[in-house]
Amino acid sequence: MRLLLLTLCILLGGNNLRLEAKKHFFSNYNFCHITEEAGLPNNSVTAVMKDSFGYIWVATQDGLARYDGYRFLSYGVKEPLYRLKGNYVYTLCEDRQKRLWVGSEAGLDLIDLRTGLSVPAADLGATSELSTLFNSFVRSVIQTTDGSIWVVTDKMLWCLELDRSGVVTDCYRMQAEADESVSAIAEIEGGVCAGVGNCIYRIVKEGDKLRKQQLSESIVPFSDDWRISCLQADGDFLWIGSNRGLFRYYRQTKTMKRYRYSSHREGMLSQAYITDMKLTSDGSLVVSTFNGLNVYDRESDTFSFIRRVENSEERGLNSNIIVCLFTDGQDIWAGTQDGGVNLLYLSRRLEVSRLGDIPWRLSPGRTPQISAVTEDKKGNLWIGTIEGGLYRMNPQTESVQHYAFTPNSSTSIISNNVNGILIDSDNHLWAYTWGAGISELDLNKSQPVFRQHSNGEVPGLEDDFIMSAVEDPVNKGIWFGATHGLIFYDKSQERFSRINLDVDVNEFESVGSLCVDRKNRLWFGTSEGLFIIDLFSFARSRRHLNYVYLRYKLDDKKSTQVERINSVFQDSRGVIWLGGKGTGLYRVIADDMNRFQFRHYGPAEGFDEKTVYGVTEDELGNIWIATENGLSRLLVNSDTFIAYGKSDGLLDKGYDANALYFSQQYNRLYCGKDHGLYQVQLRKPAGLMGSHGVKVSSVRINEGSWMYAEKKSLSGL
C-alpha cells in the first residue's frame, strides 16, 4: 500500500512539475504593445502577417498598415498614396508573385509588395467572375501549397488557380446555403477543409464547382449553434476552434476530444470562445480567446494561459480580447480588439547589468535612489544618491569608496542628499544638493577633503535648493540652477552671487538643466520656459545679462502652453536638444540673430513619449533619451527612434537628467534610479558577423508623407 501511494505521489508530482513548467511559458517572453500611439491606424486589429520582404502587415477596422519595426505606412479609403476599397480589413495573404491580397467589407485589393502600389484586377485576367469576386464582402484569403488562392466571401467560397505569371487559369465556386456560411478554412493533408455552418467538410473540385464532402463521421456538431471560428492542422491532429470551446480531432483513431475552460482552474483554457490558433517554430500551439492567451502542453495534455494584468506596462497583455494571431519563429503577434498588437518576443535588445555590489549606507528597509552619475579623468564613476551620500567606483575593479555626511564636520560632504555632480576643467568635483548647499572636492589631491558651501556660512550663496550646474569658460566660473534662479561662482574670487533676470519670473519649481553651447551662450531650462543667455554680456558687468526668453511651447509661437524644460544637451556636432515635460523632444534647427526655430519630435516622427527627463550621446553620435517609459535611442543618420523598456532589461523608467551618462572611455551608458546603478550596452544579435547591406524601407521628401522605398521614390535623392 505504501508503495502504491509513493508511486501515485511521484506520478502526480511529475504531472504538476510539467504543469508548472508550462505555466511559465509566457514568463519567458518580453511584451511590446504596438498601438495607435506608435502610428497604427486603429487599435482594433483583425489580421497580422509577415511578407517575404520581412515587413509586418497589420489589418485593422480602420485601415491597413505596413510596419518596419520603427514606423507605419498606412493604407485606407482616404489615404492619398495608398488607397483601399474599404477600411474594415478582415484578411491578408501573400501569393507567389509577391502580391498582397487584402480582403475587406468592400472587396479585394491587390498590392504589389515591391512597390506598395495597387495591382489592377485586370492583371489576373478579364472575367466577369473575378469582377464579382473583387467587389464582394471578403472574410478570408489563404494560399495553398500548390499556389492556389482560396477566398471566403459572405456568400461564396472561391478557388483561383494561377499560372506562373499570376494570371487566373481556372476558377471554382461554391454558393453558401442559407445559415451555412463558410466561417473557417485551412489546408490539411490531402486538400482543403472548411467550417460550413456547424459542420466541417473537405472541399473538392467538380467541373467549375466546389463541393462539400464529409471529413469524418467522428466530427459531429457539438450543438445546433456550434460555429467553427478557426482550424489548425498539426500533424495527425486537426484543432477546431469554435464558439463552444476547443476540439481536437485525431485522424489515426478518428476520435474527437473537447477541451474545457475555467477562469481559475489550472490546466484548462481561459475561455470557450476560440478566436484563432497558430503553431510556433518549436511546435507550441498558441490559442487566443476573448479572455486571454493560451498555450498547449503536449506532455500533460493541458493548457495554461495569461490574461491582462493591472499594470500592463510592467509585463503582460494590455487587452484580454485577442482576435487574431501570427507566429514568426517563436515570436507571437497577438492582434486585439482594443489594445492594438501585443508582440511577445524572446530576445532582448540590450545588455543591462547591475554595476558592482555597492554597500549602500541607508536606513534598514530603504533602497538607494540614484540621482547623479559622472566620470572623472581617471575613469572613476561618481554616483550621487538620495539619502545615501556620494560614492566613487572603479568600474573595472568595482572597488567602491563612500563619502557620507558627518555631523559637526567641516570636511565631509555637506549632505547625503546629492542632486547632481559636476567635475570642472580644474578637476574639482562639485556635488550640489537639495536642501544643504554645495560640496567641493579637489580631485588633484591624493587625499582630498570636502569644502562646504552653505548659505548659512558662505556670503552670496542665497539658495540651498540646487538642481543643475555647468562650467562657464568665458567668465571662469560655474553656474548653478536653483529654485530662486541663477547663482554664479567666480573661481578667481571664490565668491558666489545670485544673478536676477529682468523678468517677472525668478522663482522656479525646477531648473532641470544648464548647458553652455559653442557660441558661449548659457541655455537655462526651467519650469517656466527657456532662457538663452549671452555670456559675454555678463562678462562686461557681472550683473546684467542679455538673453532671449522663450516661455511658451517652442514650436508654436501662438501657443499659451508654458514650456517646462527638463533637459538641455549639446551633442558632438553642436546640435542643441531639449527635453520637455508634457511636450517631448525638440531639436534646434535654426539660429539666426537670436531667432530660434525648433523641430518637435512626436508620434509622426516615431517618438511617442510626452515627457523627456534627460538626453545624452553615444560614441556613434546617436542620441539616448530618458523618458517616462524607459529609454529611447535616436539613430541620427536615419532619423529613427528605438524605444527600450522593461522587456529589454531596464528595471527603472524616468531617469533624471543627472542620472543618465554615456562614458566614451568605456563605451557604455550608465543610468540609475530606484534599483541601483546599471550599465547598458546594445546586444549584438547572435551570428551577426561581418558587414550587412542596409535596406531602405520608407522615404520622406521635404517633410512630406512617408512612402514606399522603391526605385521611383529614390531616384531623385
UniProtKB/TrEMBL annotation:
Molecular function per GO: phosphorelay sensor kinase activity
Pfam families tied to this protein: Reg_prop
Record carries keyword Cytoplasm: no
Domain of life: Bacteria
Keywords, sorted A to Z: Phosphoprotein
Gene3D superfamilies membership: YVTN repeat-like/Quinoprotein amine dehydrogenase (2.130.10.10)
Keyword tRNA processing on entry: no
Alphabetized PANTHER family for the sequence: HYBRID SIGNAL TRANSDUCTION HISTIDINE KINASE C (PTHR43547:SF2), TWO-COMPONENT HISTIDINE KINASE (PTHR43547)
Protein name as annotated: Hybrid sensor histidine kinase/response regulator
